[in-house]
Amino acid sequence: MSDKTAVPNKPETSDKSKLDKLLEGGNITLNCLIPGEEARDIFEVTISNANNNRVSSLGVEIRNRRLDLFRDIDSSRLVLYKVRDSMSDNTIIINLRNDNVAVLVGTELMNPQNTIYSYFPTQPQPIYAGEKGINVIIYPPRNN
Q1: How far is residue 39's CA from residue 80's CA, in Å, rounded to a whole number?
Q2: Which helix (H) or strand (E) covers residue 58, if one does?
Q3: What is the mean pLDDT of residues 30-41?
Q4: Computed from CA positions of residues 6, 8, 13, 14, in that sequence, does the dihedral angle turn out positive or negative?
Q5: Sign of the C-alpha dihedral, residues 40, 42, 45, 46?
Q6: Interatomic CA distance for residues 32 and 138, integer angstroms
Q7: Which of 4, 5, 20, 94 sits between 20 and 30 A of 71, alpha carbons compared?
């Protein structure tokens, strides 16, 4: 008789299973800014980061979150840009204050048909102390 007790096998958590869990759907919170607004106006949108959730659904959530501005605008007309992680909130706000239709260097147009996961595979974190960390800039449609 052995005095060793059997240790149950620990389930191995591989990177693939972590990825599968994320793809199955956690929520992600994104900090959003509309050009011309200030740091106090940055707003959060929480949305599923599931593998089938598209950027177009983020547009719907943004519209619903800011009905004060977008009540009469179809969410598909909102233009969303992903902000590079290394950009500070103040830099973004100042640049957009000077030109609220400018597309900032270091941002990426988000295709409505792409998945949210393709732009945000993990929860973005602010890198500058005291800042929220802007993740998405929303350009309302221009009147043409």
Answers
A1: 18
A2: helix 55-65
A3: 96
A4: positive
A5: negative
A6: 7
A7: 94
Structure tokens at 68: 């004060």
Query: What is the number of alpha carbons within 13 Å of residue 31 lying toward its C-beta?
Result: 20
Q: Residue 93: enclosing H or E segment and its boundaries?
A: helix 89-98
C-beta separation of 32 from 87 below 8 A: no
Average pLDDT for residues 36-43, to the nearest whole number? Answer: 96
100: its two tokens? 């609220």
Q: How many residues appear in the chain?
A: 144
3-state secondary structure of 123: coil
> Which domains are present in the chain?
27-139 (3.10.20.90)
Torsion sign across C-alpha atoms 83, 89, 93, 95: negative
Is 92 within 8 Å of 39 (Cβ atoms)? no
Place of tokens 């609220």: 100
Q: Give the sheet arrangement for strand 43-48, strand by strand.
A: 43-48, 27-33, 136-139, 79-83, 107-109
Report residue 98 CA to chain centroid gap. 24
> What's the mean pLDDT in 73-86?
94
